[in-house]
Design a protein that fits this description.
The complex is a heterotrimer of chains A (about 325), B (about 525) and C (about 325). Chain A has about 325 residues and is an alpha/beta fold. In chain A, about 45% of the residues lie in helices and about 15% in strands. Chain A has two domains: about 180 residues, Response regulator (Rossmann fold, 3-Layer(aba) Sandwich), CATH 3.40.50; about 130 residues, Rossmann fold (3-Layer(aba) Sandwich), CATH 3.40.50.2300. In chain A, the strands form three sheets. Chain A has a six-stranded parallel sheet, with helices on both faces. In chain A, strands 7-6-8-9 form a four-stranded parallel sheet, sandwiched between helices. Chain B is built from 17 helices and 22 strands. A six-stranded mixed sheet of chain B has the order 6-9-10-3-11-12, with helices on both faces. Chain B has a six-stranded mixed sheet with strand order 18-19-20-15-21-22, with helices on both faces. Chain B has a four-stranded antiparallel sheet with strand order 2-1-4-5, with helices on one face. In chain B, helix 12 runs parallel beside helix 14 and helix 13 crosses helix 14. The two termini of chain B are about 40 Å apart. In chain C, helix 4 crosses helix 6. Chain C is mainly alpha-helical. Chain C has a single domain, classed as Orthogonal Bundle (ABC transporter involved in vitamin B12 uptake, BtuC). The chains are: A alpha/beta (about 325), B alpha/beta (about 525), C mainly alpha (about 325). Chains in contact: A-C, B-C. The interface between A and C is medium-sized, with 38 and 32 residues.
Chain lengths: ~325, ~525, ~325
């Protein structure tokens, strides 16, 4: 009983406090689960549906989902986790149907490919009495999910802009490489631009680089050819940033500018940790949020505590000082 | 319908000059001319496939007068009941015979197609043509002759007023042609006008009412059929006297060039055995589908022979895994279908000419080492043009632009470029005018006289009889006899070709006739 | 007819060049930086990947085939090269030797991958479209699997030396451009001056005629796929040193860009007519469009795809439509 109360308190704490780091949350939930092994009354099944590992961030997502599945299943013999990955929104909708019909899931953790097309399918799952946790991309309709775990895209854009403003206190010219035209990209970009408003920082141009290294390289090459003076680059994503770094090195202009990426990819975090002048910081948007979501969902069944609400993970600035905290050399991302 | 001083030019080349033509209902007007004389172009103008460059087309009106045609194209022509049946068929290969017959003219019941009625009517039309084809069969599975019947049935179903037949019998057996002629008679009685193009002068003599003769795009004249003999026709077409159509060929040597024993192709040829001597022309007669082509293709490695087959070339046992092996051993095959398997119609003449010989290792010094020596290739081609008298309008044109006769000569040049000892020629004169035919016969005679050995497959009985030293006859995949001397005669050949007669030892199953 | 015909061929070959010159003029008007040596050499180096792959595709398409697997194959070969190089560190002293070994392996894997495509189309008699769609899926998953869903990165010790292959230059021209030029010249000679090229043309024009002309149809077709595989390998060899990494995203849509470059260049999609220089120009046109769009903010980012689509269609129209109009 005391145990249960402790859990409840902890969960409430998680909800109210802004969790700054992934590891804090992880420690909390892990601690809970290991603490309270074996309180699953009868076998429970959690379905996890996420996009396939088609790019770096999604690769990290898959890595963390798989690792969390292993860990949770090993620690809780009564728990079964079915992990399905999809290549498109429609494939994911099919996966949801399969999870319901074939695997008879009790809970669903879903990172929707796209918000609007999956709102209906997820609502359908919910109507069958399944506990639903939505991750990262919110559904288009409120009130479907029991739990919402997400990074904060707007904050990510804001934090990046703040750093650039602060570093170029005398003003300067910057270029922006964007992702793929989606809501996520829109939120990040709009918050970034809003934060810069009124400052003496000038955005020379912005182009889509599709969250992809090759396009990051190409777009940056053209920016470098076009603008003789660039003081900073907001690459928004670490895959793009890798391409940007190569283009800047090719043009031998690494001394005149710096790059702010995003996500927390290990290669970039390592550079930050090593004090690379070109990438002085990174902004976190961790794919490990899927682990958080899965652990929270598991809690619901292990301890039968009421878990619901929104868990928004922060997007802290990764600097040379705190970089070690965010460095996971074994992760693919 | 009539034409008045109609001309057609492509670029600066005028292919038809001032043609005047009148076609009356219920008559057969034959158009005669050598290949390239402009026959096909003329009928394409009439059917709206090509635009007239000068002059005018006129249509008869109800009161008997004629009015000029304002704008003429395929659709308008079809509305007036004018249908052209091509040398190349105009059928949708994947659709059934019935669907083709009613294509663009489908019968409906309410919103839906009336499949049943179309099938029934299609069967009726086909039966009227003595064609036993199931109208539900996809056209791609039909024999060439049956495709032609479907084309004619299609025109018939549309109540055509003017039916233009361009070389209809080139792909038909004589029996099938007979059915066609009877149909033409019947159409005439129904007041249908027919324009008939053919190289077979006997046919023209038999069915035409009037004959228009073209030479080099100009009208030689228009004559009542009864006033011309076949000799007259040939003379008017060619513009010169044709002497000895079939040249004399010296007797073959004793040396055996090719020996085939027990050659079988599963489902197509059963245990055929024959010998070919040096300098010999061995004719292969038989009905369409008797297995002659399959046997020859198997010998040269284009098909699989059964294991029991033994083939010797110049006394040496051989088994060619592919055509290249046969070619390198001096055995060449000249295909019967020059458009589908003989020439690359969209490529230029030089490429076509050298295609077979380019990769022949034993010839490689000729024009292809590591790289193709295009100068030598061009020279070899120019030499071949002279040797085979290929007539070009412009050296840059593609093989598809050549007339049938020149295509056939180009094909012959292509085969002869590998200097074969044994040449298998399949239907060398199908759809070719008499002048070119005569030339090809002389080439064959010359080759034999120079010690080459020739197998000649032909459905043209005159050709077989006129050129061959001996004639092998096949029936339903069996070699029923090899005829010599006086036996080489039309009726005798037909007896073997239909299976009425067989030589002892040639085959033992006497239970069935060839149809 | 003959005069017209000559004219038609003429526009068919000059059409793509006209489109290229038009784009260059547009580029000059859009931004002065366009003509800077840096930008020009970027364009040349960048277009070399698609260009080299497209030269291979010219053979496959001329011979009447199609290869959709090239993009995934490029990713797969990139992954293989990186794994090979990373695993050889420590066993072989010289980095150059390691790189050379990886290059040889890459050519071998490319040829083998092409051989598989070729044998499946010719011997198993499956349509090239299906075969290469299948192998595309296979290679795409293999690279994702090899990279654990993430990115394979080349060890820095080798990456620094190898990167010279992409970033270095000779006589002011970047190495990738030299390789592109070399492959184009070899491709031109192969297609236009050798028996093999003639046979590709014949097979694409009419396979049955080719068979009746004693051409080893299956062998030649298989060789076109092998050639395509080796071209992909060469493109990969100059691609890997650029970013030193490979992931599931590497080479995405290369197959479509390569086919587009081939068609823009005047090669006929159904086979029987191939133009290597046209393909080179086609690849340059595709790269130029992206470059020019990046050099201007006159066009909304959201409309980039539309602009690309319109220019590609216009380029092909210039090459086909113009002569059709003239014929009437």
């Amino acid at each position: 009983m005391a145990q249960k109360q402790a859990v409840r308190a902890l969960v409430n704490h998680m909800k109210t406090s802004r969790l700054r780091t992934r590891s804090q949350l992880l420690a909390l939930t892990l601690g809970l689960i290991i603490l309270g092994v074996g309180s699953v009354a009868n076998a429970q099944t959690i379905g996890v549906s996420i996009p396939a590992a088609t790019h770096g961030w999604a690769g990290g997502l898959n890595f963390h989902a798989e690792a969390t599945k292993q860990r949770l299943e090993a620690a809780n013999p009564g728990l079964r986790i079915v992990l399905l990955t999809a290549n498109s929104a429609s494939e994911q909708a099919n996966d949801l149907e399969d999870l319901l019909a074939i695997h008879h899931i009790d809970a669903l953790v879903v990172l929707p490919f796209e918000s609007a097309p999956l709102t209906g399918p997820v609502r359908n799952v919910k109507r069958q009495g399944v506990f639903v946790t939505v991750v990262d991309r919110g559904l288009s309709e409120a009130g479907i999910e029991d739990v919402y775990v997400a990074g904060n895209n707007a904050e990510m854009g804001r934090v990046s802009a703040q750093y650039i403003k602060q570093s170029l206190s005398d003003g300067g010219d910057i270029v922006v490489l964007r992702g793929i035209p989606t809501v996520i990209d829109e939120q990040r970009f709009d918050a970034f631009m809003a934060e810069l408003e009124g400052s003496n920082i000038k955005v020379l141009d912005n182009k889509y680089a599709n969250w992809n290294r090759d396009d990051g390289f190409t777009v940056m090459q053209d920016f470098l050819a076009r603008f003789p003076k660039i003081d900073a680059v907001w690459a928004q994503d670490d895959d793009i940033a890798i391409g940007v770094i190569q283009a800047v090195r090719q043009a031998r202009r690494q001394d005149e500018l710096f790059i702010v990426g995003g996500g927390g990819m290990k290669e970039i975090v390592k550079r930050v940790m090593d004090g690379d002048r070109l990438t002085p910081v990174d902004v976190l948007y961790p794919p490990s949020m899927i682990a958080t979501a899965m652990e929270l969902t598991a809690l619901k069944f292990l301890f039968n505590v009421p878990i619901s609400g929104r868990y928004i993970l922060g997007s802290p600035l990764i600097t040379q000082e705190n970089a070690a905290e965010y460095y996971f050399p074994d992760s693919p991302f | 319908m009539s034409t008045h001083r109609v001309s057609k030019s492509f670029g600066h080349v005028e292919v038809l000059t001032h043609i005047d033509l009148e076609i009356h209902t219920g008559e057969v007007l034959a158009i005669l001319g050598e290949n390239g004389a402009g026959k096909s172009t003329l009928v394409k103008l009439l059917a709206g496939y090509e635009e007239v460059s000068a002059g005018e087309l006129r249509l008869a009106t109800a009161d008997g007068s004629t009015v000029p045609v304002a704008s003429w194209n395929i659709e308008v022509a079809e509305q007036h009941g004018i249908v052209l049946i091509h040398q190349e068929f105009n059928l949708a290969e994947q659709l059934s015979a019935a669907e083709n017959i009613f294509l663009g003219n489908e019968l409906k019941r309410g919103l839906f197609l009336d499949q049943e009625r179309m099938l029934r009517l299609a069967r009726k039309y086909l039966l009227a043509l003595n064609c036993q084809v199931d109208p539900a069969t996809p056209v791609s599975e039909l024999a060439v002759a049956d495709k032609q019947m479907v084309e004619i049935a299609k025109a018939y179903a549309r109540n055509s007023k003017l039916l233009i037949l361009d070389e209809p019998t080139a792909v038909l057996t004589s029996k099938e042609s007979e059915v066609l002629f009877r149909l033409i008679e019947r159409l005439k009685q129904q007041a249908v006008a027919i324009i008939y193009i053919s190289h077979k002068l006997e046919e023209i003599e038999r069915i035409a009412d009037r004959i228009t003769i073209l030479r080099d795009g100009e009208m030689v004249g228009c004559y009542p059929a009864s006033s011309l003999s076949t000799d007259d026709m040939a003379r008017l077409m060619v513009g010169r006297e044709l002497s000895n159509l079939f040249p004399n060929i010296p007797a073959p040597l004793d040396e055996i060039a090719l020996r085939v024993v027990n050659a079988s192709v599963p489902g197509l040829v059963q245990a055929a055995s024959f010998e070919l001597r040096r300098g010999e022309v061995l004719g292969f007669a038989g009905l369409v589908g008797s297995g002659r082509t399959a046997l020859m293709e198997a010998i040269v490695g284009l098909r699989k022979l059964t294991a029991s087959a033994q083939i010797e070339v110049a006394g040496k046992a051989v088994s060619y895994p592919n055509l290249a092996a046969a070619r390198d051993d001096g055995v060449a095959y000249l295909t019967k279908d020059r458009k589908a398997s003989g020439l690359l119609l969209n490529l230029n003449l030089v490429f076509n000419f050298s295609l077979l010989s380019l990769s022949a290792l034993f010839l490689q010094r000729k024009y292809a080492g590591l790289l193709i020596d295009q100068k030598k290739e061009q020279r070899a081609f120019e030499q071949a043009i002279k040797t085979f008298d290929i007539r070009l309008k412009d050296s840059a044109i593609t093989a598809g632009d050549l007339s049938g006769g020149n295509q056939q000569k180009l094909l012959l040049a292509k085969i002869m470029a590998v200097a074969p000892r044994i040449i298998i020629i399949d239907e060398p004169t199908r759809g070719i005018d008499i002048g070119t035919k005569s030339q090809i016969y002389h080439f064959i005679a010359e080759l034999a006289a120079n010690g080459h050995s020739i197998i000649l497959i032909s459905s043209d009985m005159m050709e077989i009889i006129g050129l061959s030293h001996r004639v092998a006859v096949m029936c339903r995949g069996e070699l029923t006899g090899i005829l010599v001397d006086d036996e080489i005669e039309e009726h005798e050949i037909m007896r073997y070709a239909t299976g009425l007669k067989r030589q002892p030892g040639k085959n033992n199953s006497e239970d069935q006739l060839c149809a | 007819m003959p005069e017209k015909f000559g004219f038609k061929l003429d526009l068919k070959t000059t059409g793509p060049f006209l489109a290229l010159i038009t784009l260059i003029i547009i580029g000059m008007l859009v931004n002065d930086a366009f003509l800077s040596t840096g930008n020009l050499s970027n364009i040349l180096a960048r277009s070399s990947f698609i260009g080299i792959v497209a030269i291979g595709a010219t053979f496959v398409i001329t011979a009447g085939g199609i290869d959709l697997s090239v993009g995934a194959m490029a990713a797969f070969i990139s992954g293989c090269m990186i794994i090979i190089m990373n695993s050889l560190i420590g066993t072989i002293e010289s980095s150059v030797a390691i790189i050379l070994l990886a290059i040889i392996a890459s050519a071998g894997i490319g040829a083998l991958a092409g051989l598989i495509n070729g044998i499946l189309t010719t011997k198993a008699k499956i349509e090239a479209f299906i075969v290469t769609l299948g192998t595309m899926g296979v290679y795409r998953s293999l690279i994702t699997y090899m990279a654990d869903g993430g990115t394979l990165s080349l060890d820095f010790s080798i990456g620094d030396i190898y990167s010279e292959v992409y970033y270095g230059d000779l006589l002011g021209l970047p190495y990738p451009a030299w390789v592109f030029l070399g492959v184009a010249i070899i491709g031109y000679v192969l297609l236009n001056k050798t028996v093999f090229g003639r046979h590709c043309l014949a097979i694409g024009s009419n396979e049955k005629v080719a068979l009746y002309s004693a051409i080893h149809v299956d062998r030649v077709k298989t060789m076109t796929y092998m050639l395509q595989g080796m071209c992909v390998a060469i493109a990969t060899i100059i691609y890997v040193p650029r970013l030193g990494s490979a992931s599931g995203q590497t080479g995405i849509l290369w197959e479509l860009e390569a086919i587009a470059a081939v068609i823009i260049g005047g090669t006929v999609l159904r086979g029987g007519y191939g133009r290597i220089w046209g393909t080179v120009v086609g690849a340059l046109i595709l790269t130029l469009i992206g470059n020019i769009l990046n050099l201007t903010d006159a066009i909304s980012n959201y409309l980039n795809g539309a602009v690309q689509g319109i220019i590609v269609i216009a380029a092909v129209y210039l090459q086909r439509g113009a002569w059709r109009r003239n014929k009437q």
